[in-house]
Design a protein that fits this description.
With about 800 residues, the protein is mainly alpha-helical. The chain folds into six domains: about 5-110, 434 Repressor (Amino-terminal Domain), CATH 1.10.260; about 130-285, 3-Layer(aba) Sandwich (Rossmann fold); about 295-380; about 385-455, Orthogonal Bundle (Arc Repressor Mutant, subunit A), CATH 1.10.10.10; about 510-730, Alpha Horseshoe (Serine Threonine Protein Phosphatase 5, Tetratricopeptide repeat), CATH 1.25.40; about 735-790, no CATH class. It has 38 helices and eight strands. A five-stranded parallel β-sheet has the order 2-3-4-1-5, with helices on both faces. The chain has a three-stranded antiparallel β-sheet with strand order 6-8-7. Helix 33 (about 675-690) runs antiparallel to helix 34. The longest helix has 27 residues, at about 85-110. The radius of gyration is 31 Å and the shape is flat. The two termini are about 40 Å apart.
Length: about 800
């Protein structure tokens, strides 16, 4: 089978030959027809490309050469077949297929997958019109290139303009045009720099999202933004990536997201001019102005249909004038005209005339006032229930919501809310970006909030906010209990009438719900704290903690923990304060901030000592012990673990006793008291088996195996590790599986069974490498040392 690279070279060679036979049309002529720079066209003809150009590029090149041959009477000189459909399209399809299959063959040969190739660009905007000059200026970003036509350094474009000017549409449209130039993928983030709720996407959250898209496991992502940025830039090194940063607030928000590797291109959009990015980082500015009259006419022709615009030219001219040639305003008018084909265009023009003075604000800088009137045209035709739902959506914390959450927001049954959601999406006032999940553009959210503030009484807005917070709190509480049934629950007040929480029935459903609502729940904690619902803030943080812990989202856990602590102190509720400090301490311990963890645990313990709650005191002492163990201080951990056991015994809390015995066993094992470790872990295992706590049992078996290993009872240790391994696999915890396999390999190595040790360590290494976990390097060194001994 011919290699993909050879097929590509043959294609380029034949294109070059075809050009010569046609009489040699200039690079300028070809680049004008193709829409690429001369350097890019030269790279294609010279075979200095690594992947096939887009089909449209090839097709336009051939057609241009054919036309040139016709114009110069050289058709008879063409020995290369010129049939687009008969010859070139099938040939290109074969080439495309070869390149699609190439990564699969390479992956099979290597036994593992290569780097993830993200394709995050939103769908290209429909019926895109105009912006010819701006597209040409963007194309010049690609002219500073290497010999194969790729950017030689990081190129940054800062695209700015007023609200509704079409920055995102232009950026996404152009990004799709050039995406083939970036075979390693495209990253996209809406930075929400002008979100009316103030929910700006922090650089750390954006970097974590990009690292996830690039396949970096959560546990490898550091807590510090500088370290995250360094890891992100390392992941992009030697890769050709297009990065679109949409709706940025300022240069500070953008800088951590800039790659450091040549070959990458960054396109930034903002309502600000980002002068700092231009002055310091060398970004190339592109200021978007209003559409020309001809471009506005083209937009309406494409969206409404030229038959209607031709029939009412005067009305079209007035619509263009009244909309100030603003793309979003024109698009909204066109959407209404297309939806209501029975409406005459002059009637829409008359409506615009009636509010002409206010439409002048469309060119202003205030995002709340710029498009308010334009949005009202769609809003005013809604049925009253849908109009109310639209207003209430401005009270939701965002960034999106489910149909059930919308039902809770309105206080109505789901069956009544679904038709409203359909009406809003059809009116382009709401987007169903994935099945069953809905989102508002930030300007629409601002408009909805304005309507709610000016239409609905304060007590009704407060009730709606209360219902939606109840929705997330009660749903998260149920899901959290499914994930961690042994956890001591908190007491919730009954949710308000009209709230329709979702009810997961098993652990898998709980995991799915948390994953879908992850960003919403984080925003909801902050929103509750900001709007005076402090009890919801700390309780929701408590319910969300197991999900974040399971996924290793410790920076997010710390963020909501801080919000919970602040909310609990505003409430002056000692019990809430203790829970919140305990939650935050756990996050800090996982982040390696042990002093902070110790401080917050002490706060939690002080509160519980005052309240006289021995069960919670016991849990806090247990966390003190685990934190000390993670710090490498078993002697410091043991007294806390023993006190935890005594308190749990005093209250008859069997689950707590078993967990405390586990910690004591680990302390003894690390202190060299191996017989005591065996005894404690066996007791814990028996109790946890009776309680059917499989994760706790895995911890017991591992501690038991560690103690048996050091006692020289290697067969028993190996058996214990196998028990732990089975439980870890049953739970689907891959890191715990690798950790157990590593200890099992240690036991095999000690007995001299080097073959078993090598096989077990290799299994562990495969998992650690899949997770991109730093333990992989240490384990790889073990394998290397073992192989050198053979």
């Amino acid at each position: 089978m011919t290699a993909p690279a050879e097929l590509l070279q043959e294609l380029c060679r034949d294109l070059r030959k075809l050009r010569t036979q046609a009489g040699g049309p200039s690079l300028r002529v070809l680049s004008t027809r193709v829409g690429l720079g001369k350097t890019q066209v030269s790279a294609i003809l010279g075979g200095r490309v690594r992947r096939p150009p887009d089909w449209d590029v090839i097709k336009n090149l051939i057609e241009c050469v054919q036309q040139y041959a016709n114009d110069h009477n050289r058709q008879g000189e063409l020995s290369i077949r010129t049939g687009i459909i008969e010859h070139w399209r099938p040939r290109y399809a074969l080439l495309e297929h070869a390149f699609r299959q190439a990564p699969r063959r390479a992956s099979s040969a290597e036994g593992r997958t290569g780097p993830r190739v993200p394709r995050q660009l939103p769908a290209p905007p429909p019926a895109f019109a105009g912006r010819i000059d701006e597209l040409a200026r963007l194309d010049t970003l690609l002219t500073s290139s290497t010999e194969d036509g790729q950017p030689a350094a990081v190129v940054i474009s800062a695209m700015s303009g007023t609200a509704g000017i079409g920055k995102t549409a232009l950026a996404v449209h152009w990004a799709h045009r050039v995406r083939a130039r970036f075979p390693d993928g495209q990253l996209y983030a809406n930075l929400r720099g002008f979100d009316p709720a103030g929910a700006v996407l922090e650089p750390a959250a954006a970097v974590r999202g990009f690292l996830d898209a690039l396949g970096v496991p959560p546990q490898r992502i550091p807590a510090d933004l500088d370290a995250q940025t360094a890891l992100y830039r390392s992941a992009l090194a030697d890769r050709r990536m297009l990065v679109v940063l949409d709706n940025a607030r300022d240069a500070t928000q953008v800088r951590p997201l800039l790659p450091g590797a040549p070959g990458c291109l960054v396109l930034v959009t903002s309502r600000n001019q980002l002068s700092g990015l231009i002055a310091v980082d060398g970004a190339r500015p592109l200021l978007l102005d209003l559409l020309s009259t001809a471009e506005a006419q083209e937009l309406l022709d494409r969206r409404i249909g030229s038959d209607r615009t031709t029939a009412e030219p005067q009305a079209v001219r007035e619509i263009i004038t009244r909309c100030a040639r603003l793309p979003l305003a024109l698009a909204i008018v066109a959407a209404r005209a297309a939806t209501h084909r029975q409406f005459a265009l002059h009637a829409l023009a008359t409506e615009l005339r009636d509010v002409g003075d206010r439409l002048g604000a469309l060119t202003g800088d205030d995002p709340r006032s710029d498009l308010r009137t334009v949005f009202s045209w769609s809003y005013q035709v809604l049925c009253p229930p849908a109009a109310r739902l639209f207003r209430l959506l401005g009270l939701h914390p965002g960034p999106d919501l489910s149909a059930r959450a919308a039902a809770s927001l309105t206080g109505l049954p789901l069956s009544q809310v679904r038709p409203m959601l359909t009406e809003l999406t059809q009116a382009n006032l709401l987007a169903e970006h994935t099945p069953g999940r809905y989102a508002l553009h930030d300007l629409l959210r601002a408009y909805a909030t304005h309507l709610a503030d000016t239409t609905d009484p304060a007590e009704q807005r407060h009730a709606a906010t209360h219902r939606v917070l109840d929705h997330y709190l009660h749903t998260a509480f149920t899901a959290s209990q499914l994930l961690t049934p042994a956890r001591s629950p908190i007491t919730l007040t009954t949710h308000r009438p009209g709230t329709t929480p979702e009810h997961a029935t098993d652990r898998q459903q709980a995991l799915v719900w948390f994953a879908a609502e992850h960003a919403v729940l984080l925003a909801t904690v902050q929103h509750a704290a900001a709007t005076g619902f402090d009890a919801h803030a700390w309780q929701l943080a408590w319910a969300l903690a197991p999900h974040l812990d399971w996924h290793g989202s410790f920076p997010d856990l710390a963020a909501i923990g801080r919000a919970a602590v602040a909310a609990a102190h505003r409430l002056a509720d000692p019990a809430a304060q203790a829970r919140a400090h305990y939650l935050l301490a756990g996050a800090y311990a996982e982040l390696g901030q042990f002093d902070d963890a110790h401080t917050h645990l002490q706060h939690a313990l002080d509160q519980k000592n005052q309240l006289g709650d021995p069960t919670r005191q016991a849990a806090i002492h247990e966390q003190f012990a685990w934190t000390a163990l993670r710090r490498g201080r078993p002697a410091e951990a043991l007294p806390h673990a023993q006190q935890s056991l005594e308190l749990f015994q005093a209250t008859g809390h069997r689950h707590g006793q078993a967990y405390a015995l586990n910690v004591i066993g680990w302390c003894h094992a690390l202190l060299g008291n191996h017989q005591q470790a065996v005894s404690c872990c066996q007791q814990a295992r028996t109790q946890l088996q009776e309680l059917n706590d499989r994760k706790g049992q895995a911890t017991s078996w591992n501690g038991l195996g560690l103690a048996q290993h050091h006692l020289g009872h290697h067969a028993d240790a190996i058996a214990s590790y196998h028990h732990a391994l089975h439980l870890a696999r049953d739970q689907g915890d891959r890191y715990y599986e690798a950790w157990t396999l590593t200890h099992l390999g240690d036991a095999h190595h000690t007995t001299g069974n080097h073959h078993a040790a090598r096989d077990t360590w290799r299994q562990a290494l495969t998992i650690l490498e899949d997770l991109d976990h730093p333990d992989a390097e240490r384990l790889s060194a073990k394998l290397t040392a073992l192989d050198s001994q053979q």
